[in-house]
Design goal:
149 residues, 34% helix, alpha+beta, PH-domain like, 4 helices, seven-stranded antiparallel β-sheet, PH-like_dom_sf
């Protein structure tokens, strides 16, 4: 994926939907868990050393699988590279569950499915396509509906 490093750093500085210091391991380093500040911003999961302001990495939460591994542990792996797994250990099971739910809701795929669902529900209730009022073209509405079926 191509990205602009300055824009990514700017995004990392935005207010987070969720942030916490938790232990994590990255695939290249093996199973060593290190304390990191983990910050969810839109559909990016940034991770920082606890004493630094710049992120040391970022995960784009698209085409990924979020799995609860153990009571306090969840992982993120990517569909194209399932062996590339990031593990996270939370302080409590409740914190772990909150992270899993927040990460699952952060992806574009989830947001798109939600839009299609609510669009269809509104259309059933009102008989009108709610996207018309925003000037979304017939072609775009067709694509949106066709891909959701």
């Amino acid at each position: 994926m191509r990205y602009n490093e300055r824009e990514l750093l700017s995004l990392a500085r935005q207010p987070a939907e969720k942030a916490a210091e938790i232990r994590m391991s990255v695939p290249k380093k093996g199973s060593v868990l290190k304390k990191r500040l983990v910050k969810l911003v839109v559909n990016f999961l940034f991770y920082f050393r606890t004493d630094e302001a710049e992120p040391i990495g970022a995960l784009l939460l698209e085409h990924c699988k979020i799995t609860k591994e153990e009571e306090n542990v969840f992982s993120i792996s990517f569909i194209e590279e399932p062996e590339r797994k990031y593990c996270f250990e939370c302080a409590t099971e409740e914190q772990c569950q909150e992270w899993v739910e927040a990460l699952r809701r952060a992806s574009y795929e989830f947001l798109r499915r939600s839009l299609i669902f609510y669009r269809n529900e509104i259309q059933k209730m009102t008989g009108k396509d709610p996207l018309e009022q925003y000037g979304i073209s017939e072609e775009a509405r067709f694509q949106l509906g066709a891909q959701g079926q």
